[in-house]
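FORM 7B: Structural annotation worksheet

SECTION A. Query
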Amino acid sequence: MQASARTTVLALLTVAATACASGPISESSAGVGPLPGNNHTGGMVLSGPDLYEHNGSLLRYLYARVPGMTVDYGSPVCPKVYIRSRKSLMGSNDPIVYVDGARTANSCVLEDLYTRDISRVEVYPMGVTNRPGYEHHPNGLILVFVRNGPEGFNRSRVSG
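SECTION B. Predicted structure
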């Protein structure tokens, strides 16, 4: 009888985890939604007019739209970003940030980029992506894709 109860509990936990990973916000409501296709990474995509028209730092935009994300502005160097939790045995809790495929040294770049210069952001709270070329990380991944053309990256504080 205990094996049957255990199986039932595991089945309920699996159903709950699957429901949570489906993305709480639809793409039509705020330019935010789950990644398309067979997405078992728990990732979400942020794009569209909501992103471009925010006209502020990318970090503040993400903080307002990524469920569970917290930002601590108390650090003297750059804000501490938490997607999963604030406790880590390895030291840093910051997610790994990539901008157009290049890994950044820290999450400071999120405060330095303007949303109007970004075409798309993918956030993977579980730190796993199906995209080739990106390493997995236990504190999450944030993949930033800059808009092309003369009006893109040149206006951000990072470039100048």
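SECTION C. Observations
Residues 5-30, 150-160 have pLDDT under 50 and may be disordered. The beta strands are 32-34, 44-47, 70-72, 80-82, 96-99, 102-103, 118-124, 141-146.

SECTION D. Sign-off
Analyst initials: ____
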